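Appendix B: complex inputs.
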Amino acid sequence: EAGVAQSPRYKIIEKRQSVAFWCNPISGHATLYWYQQILGQGPKLLIQFQNNGVVDDSQLPKDRFSAERLKGVDSTLKIQPAKLEDSAVYLCASSARLTGGSSYNSPLHFGNGTRLTVT
Amino acid sequence: SQQGEEDPQALSIQEGENATMNCSYKTSINNLQWYRQNSGRGLVHLILIRSNEREKHSGRLRVTLDTSKKSSSLLITASRAADTASYFCATDFGAGKSTFGDGTTLTVKP
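Resulting structure:
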């Protein structure tokens, strides 16, 4: 099966500019996640979708970050305006797991991420 | 914090030796997962162990789970240079959300 696709691979922007990341999950995966990984740390969940609905966005800085998953497939994550502390790798993951469903023990499948540098 | 914590932060061994990494967490879990991340790449799933399981094997990997101690260990036997990577545990407390620790960086010297 094709893996999780993310683009772009790298992005360099100046602070206060905007940026968008795109993710195409594994076909048929209902759940999609965006994680932020700062250098030397583990991934931190930003937002979790199940189909096209938001399950958890409690850690998403909503004053500057937004995400959508149109038609329950592809997803975009946007930052506007960017700050220096947003420099990180943004990872998209998908899973067959469903909240409350029998497949909740399914693992996550990650893309290779987008490395964002804010100068 | 609910996230798992890996120990040690860094581990350096010779090729052929075994590597053991530990993960501790604070609240009850549905399952615990181990992932590997090579430099500049995404995370790759290694093993998922459910809360009612005590041990799982996959090739040279062995994972144990002790829910009474709220801890898990990942053992890599007969390590290879290609095993050099960061290893993360992720705990699932429900709602399909996995929370990651900060990882163990493993270096296997040829």
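Chain B touches chain A at residues 3, 30-31, 33, 35, 40-45, 48, 50, 88, 90, 92, 95-103 (CB under 8 Å).
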